[in-house]
Design a protein that fits this description.
single chain; alpha+beta; 8-stranded mixed barrel; 9 helices; 8 strands
């Protein structure tokens, strides 16, 4: 590969900084869009995001004063990642600082308000059924199979809903139950996309887009107006991704609303 002539400064998520530290090595382009480039680095996903793109919790974010007109690559191409940068055919995206992604808060107290102000979705009832079964100790194998990889797109609807359930359990203070659900998800990750699998893994740890985290923060604060505004922002994400994630979060909170738990 010829030496790129231009360098774009960028900020790398502290959750992906380790991918840039080793010496340069090959990485495969999984998907390329005007505002985002998704790379397979070793066994991990590295999103490279332009200004105005969705700042995923693991993203390498190009500085706001840079306006790329194209990445110069397409799916299947091989680029170089390491030594603190991503080397594309005509540009180097160099990490000059780290940023810290936001994490879903934990509600302390007997209950968390239901998430009422979100678009209607048949997934909401499915999410409530799943969350209730996680808490009650019922069988999960068949039910989880209805979510992972269900639907078209780079992040199938079922996976977005499942992200909402994972985040909802953490929000409700039930992180100790997440392994019970996750053990059923892991064997099925091969059914879905690399991006969806990566987002599920981040949701397991409580990480999501800042717009999604703001919904949780507003619910914990009891601020219905802020929650409504945050939901409206999330609902605009992707074709249905934001709405599906809200359905998962809302369904989870529906199922847990009247239950009491001991920390």
């Amino acid at each position: 590969m010829a030496a790129p002539a231009t360098t774009w400064p960028a900020a790398v998520s502290e959750r992906s900084a380790h991918l840039l530290r080793p010496p340069p090595r090959p990485a495969t382009v999984l998907a390329a869009f005007p505002a985002a480039l998704y790379l397979q680095v070793d066994r991990s996903l590295l999103p490279v995001v332009a200004a105005g793109g969705l700042r995923l919790p693991t993203a390498l974010v190009v500085a706001s004063d840079v306006h790329p007109v194209g990445w110069g690559v397409q799916p299947g191409d091989v680029v170089s990642v390491g030594g603190g940068e991503v080397a594309l055919p005509s540009v180097r995206v160099r990490a000059v600082r780290e940023w810290r992604p936001r994490r879903m808060p934990v509600a302390h107290g007997a209950s968390t308000p239901r998430l009422r102000l979100c678009p209607p979705s048949p997934w909401r009832d499915e999410a409530a059924r799943l969350a209730g079964r996680v808490v009650d100790g019922g069988p999960l194998t068949t039910l989880v199979g209805r979510f992972v990889g269900a639907g078209p797109g780079l992040t199938p609807s079922g996976d977005d809903v499942l992200c909402g359930v994972l985040l909802g359990l953490r929000l409700r203070g039930l992180a100790q139950l997440l392994p019970r659900l996750w053990v059923e998800v892991v064997p099925r990750l091969g059914r879905t996309t690399t991006l969806a699998a990566a987002l599920l893994a981040e949701a397991l740890e409580g990480y999501a887009l800042s717009q999604v985290v703001r919904v949780g923060e507003a619910l914990v604060a009891g601020d219905e107006e802020a929650a409504a505004a945050a939901c409206a922002d999330v609902a605009t994400i992707g074709h249905t991704s934001g709405e599906d994630l809200l359905a998962g979060l809302a369904g989870c909170l529906d199922a847990l609303q009247d239950k009491e738990f001991v920390a």
